[in-house]
Amino acid sequence: MRKIIALIVSVLWLSSGAFAQKMMLKDFNYSGSDWQKYDGHRLTIVVLDTSIGGTALLAEQIIEGGKFTIKGQVWAPQNAYFGLYNPEGDFVYKQEFIAEPGELQIDRDAESNGINIIGGKYNKLFEAIKKDPVYVAKLQAFESYSSSLTSEDFQVDANRAKYAELQKEAGQILQAKYDAIRDNNPDPIARLLAFKMVRSLDTREKELDLLQKELGELPEIVYLKYRIQDVRARAKKQVVMGVDSTINDFKGNDLDGKEMNLMGILKKNKYTLVEFWASWCGPCRAEIPHMKKAYERFNAKGFEILSFTLDHERERWLKASNEEHIPWINIGDLKAFKSPVVQMFGIRGIPANYLVDANGKIVAVNLRQDELDKKLAELL
Fold this sequence. Notes:
Glutaredoxin; 25% strand; alpha+beta; 38% helix; 7-stranded mixed beta sheet; Immunoglobulin-like; 4-stranded mixed beta sheet; 12 helices
């Protein structure tokens, strides 16, 4: 069994609050078995990090002999992500869970191809929500309908409407259960963790203030406060850029330090896909193989891709770029979500993209998989 490659990379301070005064770093020990299918894969645990407005690595390890054991320390329970990457570094899987002190057994769920978590006060509480029969039935109805749709089916308005309605119904059940914890649970940590389902955080700022007085500046509170301020700052800086509007120019440096600006690239091509991504974003990296096929098919016809990374560490950006063998223009400013470029576009989640013509006119947004192919075939 290899040792943990990296443990906690950053720790936020604690301050006022009776609860916080008693807080100190506490050990965690997470183990898993029956992971033979993923021998050689890299397991990662990341938490949200206000210093970059993104995620920070808590721990990682290579799975060997179908088992893993990860040890480390946390101040208090935090919302986190369990991720898997294959030996080539490609993203395989990601699932939310709660990084909390103590022992957890993290087993592979062969049926869902996800994870089952055994133990942990807060994991038990929130896992029970996801296993509620009413929610499970709604989720299965949505997933069944979604998997039955072809790309052609999805072009029909009635099909898209039903898809959206089924998704909404499942989401509303989950939202109501998180709301119940946030509004009624006597445990302040449980109420704090339930904030991850709140969409309009600024309307709940007073509630957060009360939790801060009770708990102190726990990492989860600091992050939520950051999100509120970040949304307000973005609203002031954001320029509305949608279909038929003109995209704003911006610049960045490639991995060799060469500065490039968007408008200069647009003028050299008929259509350019401006893609926002990051090394740590699993869904972003899952899109890259298809994007490479589209690039190979349409590049000679006047199609280019300009990717802008939300990484804050050059080493991680370089490693991911090499692992993915990215063939297109690849720039960034290493400021993550605090980048002026990212804030100008109002990017709150990735992947996100804009298809732009040579004059800077946006012709489509957030094209994925077959949608990108169809649009490019139509235009080129």
